[in-house]
Structure formats: C-alpha cells, structure tokens
Amino acid sequence: MTDLTLGRGQVDRERLLRLLQEYGVYAGVAVLLLFNFVFTSNFVSTENFRTQAVQVAPVLIVALGMALAIGTEGIDLAVGSVMALSTSLLSLYLGYGLWMAMLMAVVGGIAVGLANGSLIAFLGVQPIVATLALMVAARGIALVLLPQLEDVRDPGMATLGSGDVLGVPYLVLIAAGLALLVAFVVRRTTFGRQLLAVGDSRPAARLAGLPVRRVLIVVYACSGALAAVAGILATARLTASDPTSLGNLMELSAITAVVVGGTPLSGGRIRIGGTVAGAVLIQLLTTTLIKHDLQPSWTQMAQAVVIIAAVYAARERGKR
Length: 320
Description:
GO molecular function, one term: transmembrane transporter activity
Keywords: Cell membrane, Membrane, Transmembrane, Transmembrane helix
Strand content: under 5%
Subcellular location: Cell membrane
Protein name: Sugar ABC transporter permease
Transmembrane segments: 23-44, 56-84, 96-115, 127-146, 166-186, 215-234, 296-314
Number of domains: 1
Strand order of the largest sheet: 1-4
Number of strands: 4
C-alpha cells in the first residue's frame, strides 16, 4: 500500500468524521422520520406531530441552557432538579396569581444558577461537582416545599398547556422563541463572544481582560432560568406538580441533545441549530422505541450510545 493510498484513506476518514459531527444529527432525524413513516402505524397525523412537538419543547428549552454551560467548558447537572423546584414553587404561589407564581418559579431557578455560577467562578469548584451538589439540594428543597403530587387547577395554566395559535401550541411557540433568542445572543452579542472566548481558553480570556467570573455566573443563571421555564411548561402540560418525578434524567436528555448537535464538550463553540435537531432526535428515538413496544430503559441505553458516538467523533476531530 503506497503512501498516497494511506494519505487518501486518512483524508477520507477525516472528511467522514467532519460530516458526522456537522450533519450527523440531521441525518439521524431524517432516518428516524423515514423509519416511522414506513413502519410505525398512525405516525403520520397532525395530532401525532402536535404531540411530538409539545413533548420536545421542555427538553429543548433545558438543552438551550445546557448548551450555554457546555460552551464555557462546563456542565449543569442541576437542570432536572430545577424543574422540580420550579413546579413546587409554582404550586405554592398560584394562590397569589399565575404571573406571581411563574415569577417565583423562575426566580428559584435563577437562584440555583447563581449558586452554581458562584461556586464555579469564585471558589474554583469544578462544574460537575458544583452542579451535582445543587442537583441534590434543589431536589431536596422541592420535596420539602411540596412532598407529593398536587393537581394544578388554574385556567391560565390550562390554557398555557393546551392552547395554541393557528394550530401551533403555546409550548412550541415559547420553545422556538427562546431558541431564536439564545441563538441571537450567542452569535450577535458581545456577551456571546465573551462566552465562547471563556470556553475556548479561560486563562487567555482573563489575560484579555474579559469578565470571566461574570460570564460564568450569568451563564449558569440563564441555565437555571431556562430549566425553570421548562418546569413551568411541563407542569402546564401535565396539569399537576410532581417534584418527585418531574425533571428526572432531564440532564441526560439535554446533554445528549447538545452533544449530538455538534457542540463540543471542550467548549468554545455552540451550535443552537444542532441542539434543536438533537432535541428532536431524542424525542423521535423515544417515540420510536415506545411505539414498537420496547421498555423505557432501552431509550436510556440508546441515548448513552448516541452520546458516546458523538463524543468519539468530536475527540477524533480534536486530534487533528
């Protein structure tokens, strides 16, 4: 085998890995859609597409916050617990009005995010350790505030969970609006450029005079706020507050959506479009397995395989 042949094989492998990272998530969505069109009964219907879109909305919103954290070379494991905390606060404050209840739920999420960001920025705690501690603490606080499931009987919440505009559910519109907002912040604002610089090299960002600590605190506060919004929307859809189960393993789904969407765990880059496609991929994967009578545990294993494949592709590209 000649050097030319070896070199050509190396180039082809690099090109394949690059295409896999850039467009693999979109190909995955297309393959799952095609599979379900052919082999899944009653998949092609307006009601089914509406259901899929509504179910993916909270995952997408949480994944947007996770993408910001990963963009700084961090991670936020507390997002699922923040959802639980937000549903507890929402239920407690509904007696003061819907807007007050939603405000307190978001404030609770921001508070957890500020705690995460402060531990990371000021004390130098590793993001995985800091957010793991807050994951346990936030879930515990949520259960203290609301020990058991409680029905949510509020007309405004019912409208938020089931209402629509021209057939498009409110939940989907909110998720789409937040995705556009986060994309704008990342690509078009000074804060977005600072965020990516911090993720690319924190020491270099400090030497350049960037407000590294402030960026980290704001990023985790935003992640907490987005997780709280997701908790509110999930509560509205379910018409019940259940801090015991709401948000369980949401961090896994969010990380999967971000990583398979092409955002590297090494930071310095965020792909919002890929994150949206990643969230859709996770929802389609879950739906496919459920509709073909496979246990939910298979979904978790499938997500793990997808994460490993995405991280491997990114790692191989990083070597070159």
